[in-house]
User: What shape does this take?
Amino acid sequence: MRKTEVITIDRAPSHTPLDATLPALLLSLLVLILALVSPGLLMAQELLPSWNDGKSKQAIVDFVNKVTKAGGADYIAPEDRIAVFDNDGTLWTEQPIYFQFEFIADRIKVLAPEHPEWKEKEPYKSLLAGDLKGVAAAGEKGLVELGMSTHAGMTTDEFAVIVKDWFATARHPKTGKPYDEMTFLPMRELLDYLRANGFKTYIVSGGGVEFMRVITEKAYGIPPEQVIGSTIATQYALVDDVPVLNRLPKIDFIDDGPGKPAGINKFIGRRPVFAAGNSDGDYEMLRWVTSAKPPTFAMIVHHTDASREYAYDRQSAVGKLDKALDEAERRNWLLVDMKNDWKTIYAFDR
Amino acid sequence: MRKTEVITIDRAPSHTPLDATLPALLLSLLVLILALVSPGLLMAQELLPSWNDGKSKQAIVDFVNKVTKAGGADYIAPEDRIAVFDNDGTLWTEQPIYFQFEFIADRIKVLAPEHPEWKEKEPYKSLLAGDLKGVAAAGEKGLVELGMSTHAGMTTDEFAVIVKDWFATARHPKTGKPYDEMTFLPMRELLDYLRANGFKTYIVSGGGVEFMRVITEKAYGIPPEQVIGSTIATQYALVDDVPVLNRLPKIDFIDDGPGKPAGINKFIGRRPVFAAGNSDGDYEMLRWVTSAKPPTFAMIVHHTDASREYAYDRQSAVGKLDKALDEAERRNWLLVDMKNDWKTIYAFDR
Assistant: This one.
C-alpha cells in the first residue's frame, strides 16, 4: 500500500516556528494515514489465515479482487456489495441439533414446574423425558407448539434477557463450550475480509431473529439490523403507561427455503452478490443470488470433518444437503471442504 | 499505529531530492485532511440552512451536540444512533392525498381496459369516475382491493419498473412537479445533518416498502435496506427455470400506528433514539422511542402553512394529527411549525 514516500523526512535547515510544529504535524498526519491504510496492510499479511491455500480460498479472493477493482469489467459499487450468510451449519455448528432447539428444551425444563399438565401432554412429555424421537413424532405442529411455549408470552425486552442468560450458561454437549463460541473461525475471517472490502454482511437464517440478535454482534460483528430470520408476531401495548412489545404465540414469517429470497427482498430490498449456505434450506437463496446479473458468488460449507466437527450431508435430519450438493458443480457454486480447506475450525482450537 | 520510529526529523543541511517533494507531500496530506474534515466545516457554515433560527432548530442541534460529545453524560455510541422518520407528511407532502393512492388511481385507469367488469364494480367504478367519496364508501376493504389489484400479480422486479415509470411521468396536482421532488428541503437537510453526525437514518412508513424503495435513495439518500414499510406477501417461483418473487394479493404487514414499533423491532432490532412524524399514525412510534432510556428525541412536523404547502391537523382525513398534538408538550416532543420554522419548503422553491 504505497508507503515508501512517507519515510525519513530531514535536512530542513533553520529555526522558523514551523520547524517546531512540523514534526508534530507530520506525526499526526502519518497516524491518520496509517489509520486509513492499516486494514489493507493487515489483510496483505494475514488474508484468511485459517483457510488452507487452495482452490476454495483462491476462488473467494479472486472474486473479491475482481469486484473491487475500480474500472474493472466486474466492478461492483460498494453499496451493491451485499453478502448473505446462513447461520446454522454455515457460520456455527448445527449438530447434534440446532442450538435454538437446545434453548427450547432447556426452557421447557425451566418452565415445567409452572405447567404440571406438560407431564402428560405431548410433545412436552417426550421432551422432558429426553425422548427426541417422541418429540419428532409430534411433527411440525408439535415443534411449533414447543416454540411458542418458549418464545412467546413475554415482552421483546424480557425475551432478550432470557436468551442472553441462556447463552451465558448453556454448553455444547460435545465441546463443553458456550454456544456462541461454536462459530467457525474461517467464516468469521471471511466476514471480516468481505467487510474490509466494502461488503455489508447479513445473516439470513431460519432461526428466530430475536434469538440470534442477542449474540450476532459479539459472535460475528453483525449488528441486529443485519440479521434476517424467522419472526413471530409482536403487539404494541402499554403496561403501566409504558410501551412494550408483546411476543404473541403466532408465527409471522418463516425465513427458510423459498422464504429466504422473500426475506432478503423484504428486509434488504436488493439482490445480494455473495451468498453462503450449507444445506438444502439455502438452495433457493443460492439460486436467487446467482441468477442475478453477474458477477455473483455462492458457496456451500460441506461438513466433511467428523473428527474436528461433524460429517454429514444427504442423510442428515439436521442440515440435510442433497439437492444443492447435486447442483453445486453445474451452477458454479463453490463447495467448501471443511476438512481440507479449513486449517482451524473454532477459535478455541487454536 | 505505532509509527513514530519512522520519522527522523533533523536539521542536517542540504539539497536532497526530498526537499523538493516535501511541499508536494504536505499539500497532498492537507488535501486528505480537508477531505476528512470538510463535512464538519461545511456544517459549521451552513447548518440546516432551510431552517429559521429559533427554538426548533436549536433543540435539534442541542440534542445532536449533546449525544455526540465524547465523554459527555448524554453520549450515545455511533452504533446506537438510530433515527426513524415517517415518510408521508414528514419527509414529503401527503396532500391532497397520499401519493401512493395517486399511483393506485393511475394504475387502475391504465389497467381498466383489461377489466371491463370494473365499470360496474365498486370501488373501481367510483374511482374511474373520479368520485373519491364513492371510493371512501367502500371502506378499508375496498381500498385493500384497489391496492391488491395494482400492487400484486407481478414479480418484484416488474413492480419496481412500474413504480419507476410512474414517478417519471406523474405530476403533483398543485405544484405540477414530479412526486419525488415534493420532499421537504429542511427534512432532507436534517437527514444529512444526522448522518454527518453518525446517525443511521431509516424511513418507517405506512406506505408500501417496495413503492418507496424505488425513490428513497435519490430523494433522501436512504438505501433500500433502511426503508421499513407495509409489505405484501411474496412467493418464490421459477419462470423458465429462472427464480422470481411473485407479489401475492395478500397483506403481510401493516406498518402504521402500533405497527410502527413492531416494524422497527422486526427490521432494526434496536430502539431508535430519534423519531420524526407528523400524524397520529406516528403516535405509538414516538411513544416507543421516547420511553427508552434517555437521551431520546422526538419531533412532529405540524402542517401550518396553507400558502406554501397545506395547513391541517385535527380534522384532516389524510394525516390526522390530534392525540399526538394534545400530548406533544407534556411528552416533550418538539412541535415543528412549518410556517415559521422553515425558510424553504421544497428545493424547487429556492
The radius of gyration of chain B is 25 Å.
